[in-house]
Amino acid sequence: MNSSIQKSFQQYGSIVSQAKEQRAKKEAGGTSFGAQILTQSAASLGLATQAEKSLQTNTRISSESTVAPRNSLADSITKVKFQSNVYGYSMDSEGFMGADFNKAAGLPSNFKIKKKSLDEFIRHATKDNNLNGFLFANVTGKLFGNNVFDDIDIANTIGQYYNIFSQVMGDNLNKDYFTDSDLLNLPKGYSSKGMETFNIRGNLTEKRNINFLNDRSEEKVTNIYRNNFEEASKLKNDLKEVGVDFNLHQLDFSPKSLRTNYSRNAWGFNPDMSVYQNSNGYTKEALFMSFLKSENPMILEGGTTKVKDSVLANNITIAAQTAEFRNFREELEKVEKIMQSEEALKRTIKEHLKYKVMELDDKKISKISSDLFNRFTQIYRDTKIKNML
User: Fold this and answer.
1) Higher pLDDT, 220 or 135
2) Rounded distance, CA 9 to CA 133, Å?
3) Beta bridge partners of 350
4) How many CB atoms lie within 10 A of CB 325?
5) Which chain positions lie within coiled-coil regions (predicted)?
6) Which segments of 203-302 does DSSP mark as H helices, in order?
7) What is the pTM of this model?
8) If we measure between CA atoms, which residue out of 127, 147, 95 comes closest to residue 272?
9) Dist CA 181 CA 359 (whole Å)
């Protein structure tokens, strides 16, 4: 991290107060207010040059009737670290990444990923309609296009996803090939802990809450769902209704998902799956690609991945402008915090109902909390991975 960005994290706490002072003097139009915040805040954070350039560009774009053209895939790929061959790593004559890439990503030495699968990953993860979309809107409401990174450490990102995949698969990775019948026995979903996500209400001195990137390097899978996934999914929805976030990831290892040109979303990650199949069945690499499809993958925080300074300056401005919204935005309680006891769940339900039109008496709340608590403890016990604390 360069010194200007590091300094920004140290001094960022003053931005919200500056924003409130400027809000009283705000003139009509969001761009003029953004100019005041951006030039003053960014100057004190050591990002003045990038911020001024960003503002000039954004103001110009906002006066145009069309969205600025987006960079081509080739332009996007040049932003990724590129050294000797592809993405800085070797590639064999058949287009598979070499052993040096596997080592950097923490993959098994015999794991074979096509270079064009990485191309598709980057294409998907740098689109403005991806979950990374927070990165792509600037202070005028227009888009940066896909040019928000100075560097993408693709090996680090792939390695983080593989670490989760290997935990989900467990002993299944001892197989070299999978038949259609094998796929039926694979997990339908999982829960985990330890993912460091950006938080719209979080501490704005933390890097991830400014660059909007998640860090999954320390993530641990805690529960595996098979035939009981639908039950877990219904429980997730019911808990959400009372203000509780049940961390549940859906997986799709169906033959349909393992085919080329299929994704649950028309705009989703969609690699060429035919290169991972042969007469013996589906390879482990095919399952990994299907896992990534289910994850709707993003570029992750880690390694040499770096968001442009101008984008960080833009994010700081947006944070200042939306301070009030962020402070009052309702946030779901994490299930781990309130499922230690039925009384904790009951308190959460009561607190959540303050924001709702509907009011329930204590007797009804007790019945709801008892039902949800019993359902959660049962499915958590049934799906918990052995030796997981």
Assistant:
1) 220
2) 22
3) none
4) 10
5) 318-345
6) 208-211, 229-241, 284-295
7) 0.75
8) 95
9) 49
